[in-house]
Amino acid sequence: MSGLFVGTFGPNAYDPSAAYQEWLGGPSVIGRRILIGLVFIFLTACSAHNPMILRNTTTTKPIETAHTYAAHKNKVWITKAELPAGTKYEALETVDVGSKWYGGADKADLMLANRARAIGADAVIRVSTWHQPSGFSWSAPHGHGEAVKLLDPKSVDLTKLEGNWY
Predict the structure, then answer these.
(1) 95: nearest Cα among 72, 121, 68, 70
(2) What is the pLDDT of residues 128-141, one digit of tens each?
(3) Spatial contact of 122 and 73, defined as CB atoms under 8 Å apart
(4) Exposed (0-12), middle (13-18) or buried (19+): which is 149, by Cβ within 10 Å?
(5) What's the CA gap between 93 and 117, in Å, rounded?
């Protein structure tokens, strides 16, 4: 950047547009395309916890399992706790949810439960919820948990764990 901070007037004056062009690598088309590409990636990232989400988002990471289960309409137990020792269950997915608008932790819990129902899970364990900037709000609910299928549902009383049905 020739002339940067050299004099304040005349041909050696600092020219912000020249500095910008130099930062882009000159008036090259490649520099502009790279900048546009980076801005596009930043604005359209789709992670559930990205602050730039523009819609309610659920992302999942399936746990390798030999079984798939049918979706159901039953209530799902949402808990921060582990299941009691000896409980027979199959872990199906880790689930991350993010809302684009304001709401309470119940909103994130409901989003976790909806995903659990869609994959046939009976409960979501190890749940954590928090608020962060997201989409169009300064404090939107987000959550994370592990969706599980109880292999012997009658052997465990989920209501003895801290949590709620959704």
Answers:
(1) 121
(2) 999 998 878 889 99
(3) no
(4) buried
(5) 12
